[in-house]
Design goal:
Helix content: 25-40%
Strand content: 15-25%
InterPro entries: Ald_DH/histidinol_DH, Ald_DH_C, Ald_DH_CS_CYS, Ald_DH_N, Aldehyde_DH_dom
Bound molecules: 7-thionicotinamide-adenine-dinucleotide phosphate
Largest sheet: 7 strands, mixed
Protein name: Aldehyde dehydrogenase family protein
Mean pLDDT: 96
Structural class: alpha/beta
Keywords: Oxidoreductase
Shape: globular
Pfam families: Aldedh
């Protein structure tokens, strides 16, 4: 009998992940309900389907988690680095083994394309644990002085744009340095952190070394204010970052803040156009533009503006927007209705202030939260879409004539997180990079990440560095 095969690319099966109807908080190695029994729902932004019900941690739970982490700190910090490394290596390997399940989970809870969770998020998550596992027994050789000591309990608050990757950026260096952690994932993406809790148990990590508190902003606020915390690490909006800085002021808590951005992607007239177009598209449409270091301002040299914009529009017309579980999807769902409303309002302000809006014709699904890849030309530096972080798939195009003008415009921002330079001239690359007030500068590429490379901002993009050797310093008393 002839068998029939479907040749259409099938969506990645969600059957690879088993999501329970409800989850508790992960405190002292056990899942438990919130003390006051509160829960909230997490939905899939691409379908609005309720994925699960999750415990909402209150101040009593924060206190229990911090106490568990403090108790665990005594033994964890006294372990030889080589022993801590073994746990981190084990966690990294389990992440690799479970990466398909975790990629589908992250795509369901966040809305980002499976292509990205599978090929970017998950490999980077495992790489971070491998990388910091390697540091755990070499802290004396990290150049921080003879006897670096862990700080204690780190309170870590992360956003929804890269839930598991931001968790890895926070937890891997903290544990390698001998700290214990209490981490709060974002309200709209709690699931991968809870699966990570399960991975900690699978790896045999001692109880209380990692604690996961799901909840909302009030949970985050209670955590950073708790007196048992020695270090606060936050990634998210500049507004909340400033609030946290005020809470921490006057205490001896160490603080690192990784906040917003308005990255300039600068294209000079000698740049290879096709390569630059790929970098521009990846710079702003990767993760639907919900990336702190997104190249959300395109600065193009006036003489090549028409040629570049034609090529860019052609490329944008080929982007596939839709089901994030489909392996061919380039642009997935916006993470939440609130975020979609923010993007819509800012994009509308662009039109109202006189910029010219363009988007390829694409049919958006009727369920879920969607925004078509969008381009604005005739943008001035005064427009809100040139100044404010949109955190969505919206690119604002400005022009320049000279390198000095490009630098001035790129630096004309309250933010200073990322920038990109596209040119064939090595001397220009170095000279321009040197003048940019941005923590990360990419040359002839964009949105490239590596655990060995420090990441962080200037100005209102925050302070402190994550990744690389520098990322350890935030978790050590040196
Ligand atoms: P935030 O409110 O900054 O959320 C980041 C994290 O902080 C979440 O876990 C959040 O919890 C928690 N949080 C909220 N209020 C807090 C408080 N008072 N004290 C301690 N923690 C608190 O970001 P958002 O509302 O998700 O997004 C708003 C805008 O921020 C976006 O449009 C975007 O422009 C920007 N953003 C930037 C980044 C990066 S990486 N730079 C990341 C996310 C958002 P809940 O999720 O429960 O609110």
């Amino acid at each position: 009998m002839a068998m029939s095969f479907a040749y259409a690319p099938a969506p990645e099966s969600r059957a690879v992940v088993d999501i329970a109807p409800s989850y508790g908080l992960f405190i002292d190695g056990e899942f438990r309900e919130a003390a006051d029994g509160k829960v909230f729902k997490t939905v899939s932004p691409s379908t609005e389907e309720v994925l699960s019900e999750v415990a909402q941690a209150g101040s009593e739970d924060v206190d229990a988690a911090v106490k568990a982490a403090r108790k665990a700190f005594e033994k964890w910090s006294a372990l030889p680095g080589s022993e801590r490394a073994k746990y981190l290596f084990r966690i990294a390997r389990i992440i690799q083994e479970r990466s398909r399940e975790l990629a589908v989970l992250e795509t369901l809870d966040n809305g980002k394309p499976i292509k990205e969770t599978r090929d970017a998020d998950l490999p980077l998550v495992a790489a971070h644990f491998f990388y910091y596992a390697g540091w755990a027994d070499k802290l004396e050789h990290a150049g921080f002085g003879p006897n670096p000591k862990p700080l204690g309990v780190a309170g870590q608050v992360i956003p929804w744009n890269f839930p598991l990757l931001m968790l890895a950026w926070k937890i891997a260096p903290a544990l390698a340095a001998g700290n214990t952690v209490v981490l709060k994932p974002a309200e709209t993406t709690p699931l991968s952190a809870l699966f990570f809790a399960d991975i900690c148990r699978q790896a045999g990590l001692p109880k209380g070394v990692v604690n996961i508190l799901t909840g909302d902003g009030s949970t985050g606020a209670a955590l950073v204010a708790h007196e048992g915390i020695a270090k606060v690490a936050f990634t998210g909006s500049t507004a909340v970052g400033k609030q946290i800085a005020r809470t921490v002021a006057g205490t001896d808590k160490k603080l690192t803040l990784e906040l917003g951005g308005k990255g300039a992607n600068i294209v000079f007239d000698d740049a290879p156009i096709d390569q630059a177009v790929e970098g521009i598209v990846g710079g702003i449409f990767f993760n639907q533009g919900q990336v702190c270091c997104a190249g959300s301002r395109l600065l193009v040299q006036e003489s090549i503006q028409d040629e570049l914009l034609d090529a860019l529009k052609r490329r944008m017309s080929t982007l596939r927007v839709g089901d994030p579980l489909d392996k061919n999807t380039d642009v997935g769902a916006i993470n939440s209705a609130e975020q979609l409303a923010r993007i819509t309002a800012l994009a509308d302000s662009g039109t109202a202030e006189g910029a010219e809006r363009w988007a390829p014709s694409c049919e958006l699904p009727s369920q879920g939260y969607w925004f078509a890849p969008t381009l604005f030309t005739n943008v001035t530096q005064a427009h809100r879409i040139a100044r404010e972080e949109i955190f969505g798939p919206v690119l604002s195009v400005l022009t320049f004539r000279t390198p000095a003008e490009a630098v001035a415009k790129a630096n004309n921002s309250q933010y200073g997180l990322s920038a990109g330079i596209w040119t064939e001239k090595g001397s220009r690359m170095l000279a321009v990079a040197d003048k940019l007030r941005a923590g990360i500068v990419w040359a002839n590429t964009f949105n490239k990440f590596d655990p060995t490379s420090p990441f962080g901002g200037f100005k209102e993009s925050g302070f402190g560095r994550e990744g690389g050797r520098h990322g350890l310093e935030a978790y050590l008393s040196v």
